[in-house]
Every structure is written in C-alpha cells, then in structure tokens.
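Exercise: predict the fold of this chain.
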Amino acid sequence: MTSARQVLRLACLALALTVGVPAGRAEADTLRSMGSTGPPRNRVDLIILGDGYTSTEMAKFATDANDLVAYFFSQQPFKTYRKYFNVVRIETPSVVSGTGFETAKNTVYRSFLNCFAIPRLLCADNARVTTILDRNLGSIVATSSSSSSTIRGSAAPAGSSP
C-alpha cells in the first residue's frame, strides 16, 4: 500500500522525458517502462517523476513508483481504463536525498513540503519541470513504442541549465 509519504515523494506526475544534467541532478536520466498496453497514438502516456532519490536510492524509487501505480489503477475509473495507459518512470537521481521542508534542497525538481504553509502540500520548481517538458515532450511518443525497457538521456555540459 502506498503511504502518504510515498505519494508526496512521487507527487510530480507529468508527461516528459528529461535529458541533460541541471543543478541538483547527479547524472543523466533513465526512462523505465512500467507497462505498455499499446501504441502511443491511442493511449495515455503516464510518466512518474520522483524527486529526492539519490543514485543509490533508485531501487527504492522503483518500489515506490510500483506501489503508487498499483494503488492508482486499483481505483475507479482508472481500474476500468487501465488498458488505455502506458506507464513509465523517469529515474532522475538527485545530489541529496529527500524533500525539503519549507525550502528546497539541492534536488532535481527542488521540491519541498509545507508549501504556502500547508503541511502536506508539496511544491516543485515549475520552471525546471516546464523547461524539461517543453524540450522533451516529443521524445515520449518515440520512447513509448520502443521495445527496450531502459532508455538513457544524453548528458548536458556541466553548468548548463535544464
């Protein structure tokens, strides 16, 4: 079962493939399939982004993402329409572990809890997420139909922005 803490760490759900290594990121991203049900032209591609997992915590992120997806598809209407979703997770290792509280840590998406003084509200740096989405949205369609379960992004030069 997915705990509230796991849901908060996985609260960034988006449609994107991130490439490059902006500040807060330890290495390039890896896209991993969590289930493909058909061609992307008539499916919803659900991409799970996790923030605050270091490279040594990627197995935990995989477990947390699997728990979240299992819970998500156990609920209606998603349970009924599961066959219309392709799901992948993007492993984006952060420099530090965890999510900030009231201020962001040096993580990929700079997420933090207690956003707007609401105890369980998780916020992230929208500019980082938007830049990554804008730059990589087209990559998802090509990736979703790939038979490979692991696809690596390219690394940007040190000091470059996302």
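Check your answer against the key: The chain has one domain: 4-146.
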